[in-house]
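Methods — Computational structure assignment.
A single polypeptide chain was analysed. Its primary sequence is given first, followed by the predicted tertiary structure written as structure tokens.
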Amino acid sequence: MAKHIGIVACSAEGSAFFYRTVCAEAPKQMGEHMHPEITMHTHPLGVYKGPISAGDWAEVARLMSSSARKLADAGADFAVCPDNTNHQAFDLVIEDSPIPWLHIAEVVAQEAKTLGLGRIAILGTKHLMTGPVYSEAFKRSGIAYEIPEEEDREKLDDIVFEELAKGIFTEESRLYLNEVIQHLKGRGCDAAALACMELPMLVDSDDCPLPTLDPTHLLAMAALREALKED
């Protein structure tokens, strides 16, 4: 029997994309129409957004922990959070979690190391780009990183919350993101981490200036490996 996956969700768009990715990839390993048992719980993004904006990671951790407890009660064997920014509260969450977790940035860093990448552009919300979630994971893997300039960080943050989280994907924002990635390519980056769950839905890999690391897909594959792993 596959392990039961628990999804601690935040953004509806990103979490739905993650869920669909798991279900789309699972049949390749488990057979047609098959995937592990999955339970998802989410507090509304609106409840998360205040603490995130205030940098109140203890409150973000409290919300995530309450979801984890509900998932454990529903039978989940381990948890994943398809929200990059929320991982800034990760260390607080796992202190008393009833079930183990996978860390999204560690999964991405391992993939970057496997691919032999040396310098990664980090893209996402402003808190994610300036915070420790990816920078620390990359440092532990011996990988350098770059983030956009402050003006671009602010604009990207607006795009994430005012467009992508609402299911709005515009050509203007796609082209703007390409400009940001092109600038980071000029600073020596050899790949871009799309560290917001909705960003892979905006970027067109055919014309993106850099190869991309897709945390949604990478975390989904890691969750499947964990679910199918024999203890």
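Note: The domain at 5-103+217-228 is CATH 3.40.50.1860 (Rossmann fold).
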